[in-house]
Amino acid sequence: YALCLLFIPMAFTSCSDDDENPVPVDEEEVITTMTVTLTSSGNSTVTLQSQDLDGDGPNAPEITVSGNLAANATYSGSIELLNETETPAEDITEEVEEEDEEHQFFFSTGGSVTGATYSDQDGDGNPLGLSFELATGEAGSGTLQITLRHEPKKPNDGTLADAGGETDIAQTFNVTVE
Q1: How many CB atoms lie within 10 A of CB 1?
Q2: Which helix H or strand E contains 10, and what residues bound it?
Q3: CA-CA distance, 100 to 126, in Å (whole number)?
Q4: Which residue stretches of the chain have pLDDT < 70?
Q5: What torsion, rounded to 10 degrees, do the Cα atoms 20, 21, 23, 24 define?
Q6: Pairing between strand 166-177 and 62-65?
Q7: What is the spatial distance between Cα 124 and Cα 148, in angstroms, rounded to a whole number?
């Protein structure tokens, strides 16, 4: 009986791990749709889109390419990001613009897509990538990979390996250059 009385005070003692000054959580953006619009003087506008309405669910993103790119051309590119799990859809592009020092797009090209260069900068003068120039070479097939990183090291050498950070969205588009 005496032993039971010794354990009763311990049953009412608890430790609190509540932090009186919690760190605010900056939630990662939910991005379901990336739309890339490519325009070039004298050529048709081409739209590349990745739409993944179930997010990290079992279904792969639906990828669409509206047409072929012209050979030996330069396109002005712009990127729009949406969260279509909300109604109306939330424009994540605005959030990336507002938090531009905490974001950067990275471009990787291959085949007949010969390069991409930044057309915009964040508030500190580092590349952002919501606007860019895309160059094509001879007719053939090509790839354009676009990756958005959250909190990359800035400045960086333009590679994902040097930038670090967390990937918000990454998509590779297969295109035809004619």
Answers
A1: 4
A2: helix 2-11
A3: 9
A4: 1-28
A5: 90
A6: unpaired
A7: 18
